[in-house]
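Translate sequence into structure tokens.
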Amino acid sequence: MKTINQTDFTQALSILFRETFEGMPTPEELVYLDLDAGIFVTLGVIDASQASTETNSSTIAAHSEHARLYLELLDNYLNKDLRIIDFKQSWRVKTVGEDEWDALRENISKTYRKVSETFQKNDDWELDSITVAMGIIAHTAYHLGAIRQMAKNL
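Result follows.
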């Protein structure tokens, strides 16, 4: 069985992770999203009122908190912290004021930076941690798509 170079894996994972959250500045760097379609760009143009508008029993604020909570789970997992997180609590976020919305977006950014640092210092990519890291990217991409669709209808 052929093995994957750990540095190559970390770099590839980081590229996809960065694109999911930051978007990419040029078309040449894109792997799967439209230009400037990452979480930060998307959430940056949504105000608290829009984030609180319910669509199909959910809000952009709820999707955002849910994605942040999953990031926290990933960081905990990669740091061998296996505490249980109540994912249902993220869906309880419905209405946010401007200050709460700003804080939520900042918390997503902080958690993203923390996970990015964890990726770079992780030198023990085993099957479980690879699967969880890749799953978080896919899971976040799903919520990004849901948020972008909800924002289109506002």
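Note: The chain has a mean pLDDT of 91.
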